[in-house]
Design goal:
Elements (H helix, E strand, L loop, with lengths): L49 E5 L5 E6 L4 E6 L4 E4 L10 E5 L5 H10 L5 H12 L13 H10 E2 L4 E7 L5 E6 L5 E8 L6 E4 L3 E3 L8 H5 L1 E4 L2 H15 L5 E4 L9 H12 L11 E5 L3 H8 L6 E5 L5 H7 L8 H15 L4 E4 L9 H11 L5 E4 L18 H13 L4 E3 L12 H12 L1
Helix pairs in contact: 5-6, 7-9
The chain binds S-adenosyl-L-homocysteine (SAH) and iron/sulfur cluster (SF4).
């Protein structure tokens, strides 16, 4: 059972008007904020001032680090950092690629190209994926000459912890900073007996889909994450809990099917023995319903699990709740999901957050029943995480007996469903709240 870990979240970087953000990479000190309820890593230096400007082209962000006047451009699609002054690892101006965005095959090709034996691939993967190396010069079982060749072309795009919150129920929420200063959130959800761990990771910094009920959607899009940045979220959470990850859900910030290749690469890394060894069936990708992505996902050889955010089976309601997919008809979505079930034999989940007066009346319940009829699916009724302030805030939450009623109607009509348990409520259920709290404490 996947606990709720919805990342209704904004991200650190929004636009040029935001001149202050958490940064663990700068030496310039500001007064540290009052983070009384946040356990902060002792390794994280004080926060600094940073200016961020999106340049309008896809996935490219210019970062001004006030500490040493550095300006970096990060091309997320290709995992390349172009450092115009000094980057995080003190690099002069040149193009570098994130080593963690290289697939196993690319690493093999690279070693061939550099005239290195193939066992170097394994050594490098151990450093990157098991030991969490941050700097290429630290890879000390590689020959010095190889390290400097790699250093000239690559950096390691690992994550830095900015803050962590721990819930009474054991759920932990993390704010991580990426190499270019963008921030993302990740959640670790232990089972009640503490033996199993589910990690909810982000696939993008922000999200361009603009769903009305989602804080990430409201805040906009920054960039795609590399596969390494997704992998590292899960690894760091596993390290923090000190136990094996049993499940991962790609339900954090972002729309995974807008970053399809990197998400799949990340899942494969997590699945690999020299990775996290998580079973493919225990990995769930949640999409707002991009048809191409659903089709493509059905052809993947691994038995990954699919979840689709439905939220309304009436066209007008879904269009207004989820404007990013308003070009998708309910009928075509239904066909795509049905096709997925037929091709894979697997049962996708349909995510449905009842919102008072929006999608919770009898007409909407009936439409949901019709949508599910004859389809292999499991409906997950998820409690709305209010994103305040806004029209889908507290007042939009449905009473629990209404959710139970919806569940009963579905069951009576033969539709498998469950009400998802909310976890980590006391640590700001919607992930963006962690960042918001940090920012407000910085400005006060
Ligand atoms: N973009 C993908 C995955 C990330 S969102 C998607 O939309 O599926 C993960 C889940 O959180 C989705 O089911 C989404 O609809 C849900 N969600 C977002 N904001 C929420 C909120 N405020 N309350 C409840 N669920 C929310
Ligand atoms: Fe939020 Fe919608 Fe983006 Fe999912 S697709 S992260 S729900 S805005």
């Amino acid at each position: 059972e996947i606990a709720q870990c919805l990342v209704g979240s904004e991200m650190c970087i929004r636009d040029s008007s935001m001149t202050s953000k958490p940064s663990s990479r700068s030496a310039s000190a500001q007064a540290a904020p009052d983070l009384s309820d946040i356990s902060r890593s002792p390794l994280v230096p004080p926060l600094s001032k940073t200016t961020l400007v999106t340049d309008g082209s896809h996935g490219l962000v210019v970062i001004m680090l006030s500490s040493h006047g550095a300006s970096e451009r990060f091309d997320a699609q290709n995992g390349i950092v172009m450092a115009a002054a000094t980057s995080r690892q003190g690099l002069p101006m040149q193009k570098k690629r994130d080593m963690m965005s290289l697939s196993h095959q690319e690493l093999e090709q690279l070693m061939d190209e550099l005239g290195q034996p193939r066992f170097r691939v394994r050594q490098i993967e151990e450093w990157l994926y098991a030991r969490g190396a941050k700097i290429i010069s630290n890879l000390d079982n590689l020959p010095l000459s190889l390290r400097s060749q790699l250093d000239a072309r690559f950096f390691i795009g690992s994550l830095d912890l900015v803050t962590r919150q721990v819930s009474e129920d054991g759920t932990r929420k993390y704010l991580f900073e990426l190499a270019d200063g963008a921030c993302i959130e990740t959640v670790g959800i232990p089972s009640a007996d503490g033996k199993h761990l589910t990690v909810c990771f982000s696939s993008q910094a922000g999200c361009p889909m603009g769903c009305a009920f989602c804080a990430t959607g409201r805040a906009g899009f920054v960039r795609n994450l590399s596969s390494g940045e997704m992998y590292d979220q899960v690894r760091l959470v596993a390290d923090d809990f000190g136990i094996r990850v049993s499940n991962v859900v790609c339900m954090g910030q972002g729309e995974p099917f807008l970053n399809y290749d990197e998400v799949l690469e990340a899942l494969r890394r997590m699945n690999a023995k020299l990775g996290l060894g998580i079973g493919a069936r225990h990995m769930t990708v949640s999409t707002c319903g991009l048809l191409d992505g659903i089709e493509r996902f059905s052809t993947e050889p691994e038995q990954f699990t699919l979840a689709i955010s439905l939220h309304a089976a009436i066209q007008d309601t879904r269009d207004s709740l989820m404007p990013g997919v308003s070009n998708t008809s309910i009928d075509s979505l239904k066909k795509a999901i049905r096709h997925y079930g037929e091709v894979t034999g697997r049962r996708p989940s349909l995510e449905y957050a009842p919102i008072k007066g929006v999608n919770d009346d009898d007409e909407h319940i009936e439409a949901l029943v019709e949508f599910c009829k004859g389809m292999l699916c499991h409906v997950n009724l998820i409690p709305l995480n209010p994103v305040t302030p806004g029209k889908h805030g507290d007042g939009m939450m449905v009473p629990s007996n209404r959710t139970s009623h919806i569940s009963n109607v579905l069951s009576a009509r033969g539709i498998e469903n469950s009400i998802r348990k909310s976890r980590g409520k006391d640590i700001d259920g919607a992930c963006g709240q962690l960042r918001q709290r940090l920012e407000s404490s910085m400005s006060s």
